[in-house]
Amino acid sequence: MKHPSRKLLAASIGAASCLVCLACLPLAAAPLPLTMMSAPVKVTPQASAGIVAQLEARRAQRGLDARHGFAVLGQHPGMQGTQVARVAHTWKGVPIFGSESVVVLGPNGKIQSESASERRAGLGKSAPGAATGGPGSDFSVVPAISSRQAIDAALGSLGANASHVAPPSAELIIYPVLRTERTAAARDKPEYELNALDVEDVVDHYELAYLVHTRMHVGEKPVYHDTVVSARDGSILDQWSMLQTVTGVGKSQYNGEVPINTTLVDGKYKMIDDTRGTGGMFGAMAITNANNTSKAGNVYVNDSNTWGDGKNYIRGGSTTDANGQTAAVNAMWGLMNTYDTLKNVFGWQSLDGHNTATYIAAHVNTAYDNAYYSDTCRCMFIGDGSSFYSLGSIDVIGHEMGHGVTAATSNLIYSGESGGLNESASDINGEMVEAYARAGGKGDTIPSEGNDWVLGKEISKNGTPLRWMYKPSKDGSSPDAWSTSLRRIDVHYSSGPNNRMFYFLSQGSNADKASDYYSKYLVKNPAAMTGIGLDKAYRIWFKANTTKFTSSTNYADARTRMIESAEELYGKGSREAIAVQRAYAAINVGADVDE
Question: Which of 203, 252, 325, 594 has the least C-beta neighbours within 10 A?
């Protein structure tokens, strides 16, 4: 998340699991309902080879030759009975950045459908007059500098005297340099009248490059970047931050006394929930104590199974006494409810769909006004706040864990429009987890209400939210609708229009021009569009993000994939599919339609 003035929020134990709650009975486990997503499946080299063979058989009809290849990046559960594979497009064995296919596989491993971002067509074709580094029929993939030199160039550009959280790495890629062009129909439109479907990204030329990943700490501050370095001369072609932020009995700070799962080991209670997730760092979901450092630290341990005092952490105090435990209670409550929302509603297990356990580190740094997801450990870090209260509110935890789901599926590039959609996906997840948790955290649907449609209100000392989903511009920086400037602003702001789309999709709009819920782009009947409710809206979004979006999906493509998802779930011409069209029209992405 981001405040108007600064970025924010950017071994299995075989023992008894304890669930306790003051003045309440233990929660009984409900049977898992028939859910949207398939169970995890083991990915084999043979299965990956089969996917590649099917895609290679389609090359000729797409005008591609044998130099164009495919590399399976990973697989995860899809809709019931299907699996989803994410496949990179390659040229002479080198991946083309942002060019990939998402294929849905049937039970027999055959491709049922494919969503693709095509950024490879120019490779292998002569292009007289093309810019230096243009494709040409013999585009070389032999670098002039080494990966070590590329890493040094990236580190030099950051100018940081830092310690590495993980060793830096560099991957050779072909980097399509894009330019934005208007469609023929929009050539003469004034800039302010442009709709997202009036422009398209086209490849200007290609550069052989290294994608360098650096994950560092400067002092106690995390500095995570991805940098595109020219493999010809070591120059910096692009760079973006990868810090994906928002800016027993547990006496929680924001939800009163709540039941939390802990594990009894050798007479001590550990904040490990061995009923959720397997493997990972601690064998199951866990909360650790960073103890005012940038390190995750050790799992919380207590003599009794009553945790926390429900009060904000007192700076400088113990992080292990009752007051210090409250931040851990906040984190465990959020982690449990996020896991349950995804599993009970969708059948999606943990962050990756394969039920791999994750953890949250509480008390990160000193008076740290941030919470963030780290791709190095696939875990979350939560600060205590200075301008804010402890950052472990339910919507913030749901937001950060949402980054983990996106990283395991669409992996939306954290820059430009795709970066805004990445942030929006987490905002949506945070709000849906909040609604689910506040309704009791049970059942196989998202309740019709319970969330507040603002992000981070509880952690704000003056009660001012960090983001307003229904009208993003209330923060003074986020736009309410798409424009050509969207890709040039911070991803915490470019998320705004898609957040508003999701509000309209689920709740509808208002025809009163003075209302915060009004959109001037809704020009069909009725003037106030009708929402379809939280549950249906979230199902459509989750299906699109996990089974259709590619890493380079932008707003226009998101609309297309969302319509496809609505049609597949509820039928062509359904009111749900129409609502998706209207909700995107309301943010200047596509034309409005009558209901």
Answer: 594
Q: What CATH number did the domain enclosing 65 receive?
A: 3.10.450.490
| Residue 574 located in a structural domain | yes
Of the CA atoms within 13 Å of residue 568, those in its CB half-sphere come to 20
Are 458 and 389 in contact, with CB atoms under 8 Å apart?
A: yes
Residues 387 and 498 in one domain: no
**In a 3-state reduction of DSSP, which class is residue 181?**
strand
Q: Can you tell me the distance from the alpha carbon of 176 to that of 440, in angstroms, rounded to the nearest whole number? A: 48
109 SS3 class: coil
Residues 443 and 577 in one domain: yes
Of the candidates 63, 96, 117, which is a domain's last residue?
117
Beta bridge partners of 468: 454
CATH number for 531: 1.10.390.10
Between CA 492 and CA 421 the distance in angstroms is: 9
Report pLDDT for 266.
87
Average of per-residue pLDDT values in the chain: 90
458 shares a domain with 366: no
Place of tokens 């943990």: 350
Look up tokens 């993000």; give the residue: 545
User: Dihedral (C-alpha) 446, 260, 403, 364: value to the nearest 10 degrees?
Assistant: 150
Our count of domains for the chain comes to 3
Q: Which domain holds residue 503?
A: 429-585
Question: Could you give the CA distance from residue 229 to residue 240 in angstroms, rounded to a whole number?
Answer: 12
Model confidence pLDDT, tens digit, residues 237-264: 999 989 875 546 667 788 889 899 999 9
Residues 306 and 258 in one domain: yes
DSSP state of 2: E
Q: Round to whole Å and give the CA distance between 467 and 475.
A: 6
Residue 500 in tokens: 């508003």
Number of H helices, E strands in the chain: 10, 25
Find, among 150, 165, 141, 177, the residue nearest to 68 by Cα. Answer: 141
- The pair phi, psi for residue 57, each rounded to 5°, is -65, -20
Nearest to 334 by CA among 425, 456, 453, 454: 456
Q: CA neighbours within 13 Å on the CB side: how many for 494?
A: 20
Global confidence as pTM: 0.89
Find the mean pLDDT for residues 139-162. Answer: 92
Residues with Cβ within 8 Å of residue 333, at least 6 apart in sequence: 250, 252, 255, 258, 260, 394, 397, 437
How confident is the model over 513-540, as a mean pLDDT? 98
CATH code, domain carrying 402: 3.10.170.10
